[in-house]
Amino acid sequence: MERFVITGGQPLSGTVRPAGNKNAALPMLAATLLGSTPSTLRNVPDIGDVRTMVRLIEALGGTVERGADHTVTVDPTGVAPRALDPDESARIRASLLLAGPLLGRFGRATIPPPGGDTIGRRRNDTHWHAFDALGAEMTLVDFVHDLRAPSGRLTGADILLDEASVMATENAVMAAVLAKGTTTIRNAASEPHVQDLCRMLVAMGASIDGIGSNLLTIEGRDALDGTEAEVSPDFMEVGSFIGLGAITEGDLRIGPVRHDDLRMIISKFDVLGVRVDQDGDDIVVPSAQDLHVREDHGGKIPRIHEAPWPGFPADLMSIALVVATQASGTVLLHQWMFESRLYFTDRLIEMGARIIVADPHRAVVTGPSKLGGARLQSPDIRAGMALLMASLCAEGRSTIGNVHQIDRGYERIDEKLRSLGAHIERAPV
Ligand SMILES: CC(=O)N[C@H]1[C@@H](OP(=O)(O)OP(=O)(O)OC[C@H]2O[C@@H](n3ccc(=O)[nH]c3=O)[C@H](O)[C@@H]2O)O[C@H](CO)[C@@H](O)[C@@H]1O
Ligand SMILES: C=C(OP(=O)(O)O)C(=O)O
């Protein structure tokens, strides 16, 4: 067990290279199982969740080689549809993403409950509905789902997802690319990671129309080849560093980024007065920030809320909340997707933030407030990063326990922060 020890108040300046997007790398690793030959992924982040996914693939019979410079090659030729290990599965939410490829390729998948952030109920029903529509039969024994395609192969179908679930879309697509006939997925999620996955599948020989929209049409193929694919920069990490740069008063350059992925993020940070400049493939967060809440027309209090893509990402709400504590004015943050994601707000209040938690989904923040150091625990990836940001801008010393929750999603965050001038050490508990 490790913790971070932080002395806040240093301006952070320098250049950050964002890692590959965790939420793209995980489904892309799962998708390698659909090929009949090896696939190589570039820009795979070296984070806890990826290491767990690699172990799950190896336990299924895949051979995984990590090359230099964030390259991972998966040879799926030895893979068989064995039951996933329950303990490993429970470590990450994305273990559920092995269901689609196993079912599509072998007509069988045995899936124990996935894990992931404990941020409220994580609903899986949309996944089961999609597999059911493709002809899978499902039995549930001791929380383990056993999925089978009766004739060994799924059949294409017209599917209306009951919500635009990111991973259910990814699972449905991965199951459908080897199904017999045409599949239509309506109300599909279209986040950049869903797009990354779909582009990789097309490079493997899949036929997918509508990438980037909420209507995907897939013509099933008999087999797919391996491929090479690149994981896009993690716009959640980029968003986190934008927030961090804004509240620590240094000059930050972040890149390379994909500007298209950042439009809504930058527009919502702008509500908090955060200024971000584009410079080629980079973005720059300059030191001279005038953080104040931009009121809506007529002086109304603005609201920042998450939404499916191209809305503001749910995973950046905790980050926006910390930035709001440093902006003068009042803003409502509405985080409706998860029931328990705002609980960490109590810790910010302890540090000196002026926040009214109206209910489990809404927090009214009035800033700016002077934060002081505190003893903290990371409850989940993003709240952990948010508390880390608060500690870096607070006066005095903070400690953050449970840092494996931050390591699940952010690659060597302490090293990156030190290179920018932060006073942060990783220490045993
Ligand atoms: C590995 C991975 O990729 N994890 C991400 C993925 O999780 P995941 O795919 O599990 O999240 P989902 O998109 O399924 O849903 C998130 C929550 O929002 C609710 N919901 C979602 C869409 C909708 O139209 N209506 C609705 O109510 C769901 O019931 C659920 O409570 O997407 C989430 C939402 O962007 C992110 O927080 C996670 O980081
Ligand atoms: C909620 C997250 O991840 P997961 O879905 O993997 O738990 C996240 O990345 O913020």
TrEMBL record:
Positions with a binding annotation for phosphoenolpyruvate: K22, N23
Main localization category: cytoplasm
Gene Ontology molecular function: any one: UDP-N-acetylglucosamine 1-carboxyvinyltransferase activity
Active site (UniProt): D117
CDD domains: UdpNAET
Enolpyruvate transferase domain location: 7-417
Ligand binding (UDP-N-acetyl-alpha-D-glucosamine): R93, D315, M337
NCBIfam families documented for this protein: murA, PRK09369.1
Described function: Cell wall formation. Adds enolpyruvyl to UDP-N-acetylglucosamine.
PANTHER family registered for this protein in UniProt: UDP-N-ACETYLGLUCOSAMINE 1-CARBOXYVINYLTRANSFERASE
Name used for this protein in its record: UDP-N-acetylglucosamine 1-carboxyvinyltransferase
Organism: Actinomarinicola tropica
Originating gene: murA
